Amino acid sequence: MKKSIDVMIIGASGRLGSAIERVAPDFPYFHIVQRVTREHPELINLDNVDVVLDVSRPESLKNNLDKIVAARKPLVIGSTGHSDASLLVLREASKEIPIFHSSNFSPGIDHVKKMLSILPYPIKASIQEVHHTGKKDAPSGTAKDLAKITETPVDEILSERKEGVIGEHSIHIFLDDEVIKISHTASSRTLYARGAIKACQFLSNKDKGYYTSFHDEDPQHHIRQK
């Protein structure tokens, strides 16, 4: 059984792609065999790749998805800002290949989603997120995921952009005469990079399906019990 994972990174020169390359030496089994960037956008030698890791932009994935599906390669996606139509396309593609799609590779956020998924229905929640000024989408993909789990309207999410902030998310759960507060603060992009590598390892031996969590082997995740 092959123990190493040969990975193609799409978006290798971006913030997260660069962070993944920096921490990659800490994971002996993780081998970057191809870097896809704006300067070198071609997907070459997919036959020699075990997992494709896309941390670029939604437009890039749209252009490459057919090739990845045709090559039957597992696909890990870390980009956000996908339209509902694009998400449906990804769901359809997951009938052919395993796809791990996460708006946030932080293990802590994964635990937060798991905690929220077991809350009793119905609940009332408020969500706030703060990110660096360079982040394009608002609300963040993570905040939208949290809103979906808690059934909070997306237009009620409070979003801020500040200099020097990596990522902060806060959820207030309002119960009878009490409030539960769950918050998460990222202090470095290293945690996202490590999470992305973990996602590649997680997906490398999976069958077709759409995965969003490290916690559950079932492709259907974070379905709250009503």
- Reading off the top of the CATH hierarchy, the class of the largest domain is best stated as Alpha Beta
User: Averaged pLDDT, please?
Assistant: 90
SSE pattern: EHEEHEHEHEHEEEHE
Radius of gyration: 18 Å
DSSP helical segment count: 6
Major sheet size, sense and barrel closure: 6 strands, parallel
- What is the CATH architecture term of the largest domain? 3-Layer(aba) Sandwich
Strand order of the largest sheet: 2-1-3-4-5-10
Q: Spans of 5+ residues with little confidence (pLDDT < 50)?
A: 218-226
Helix content: 25-40%
- Looking at CATH, the homologous superfamily of the largest domain is NAD(P)-binding Rossmann-like Domain
Intertermini distance: 41 Å
* Strand percentage: 25-35%
CATH topology of the largest domain: Rossmann fold
Based on DSSP secondary structure assignment, what is the total number of beta strands?
A: 10
Total individual domains: 2
Using brief descriptors, characterize the structure shown:
226 residues; 4-stranded mixed β-sheet; 30% helix
Summarize the structure.
With 226 residues, the protein is an alpha/beta fold. It contains 6 helices and 10 strands.
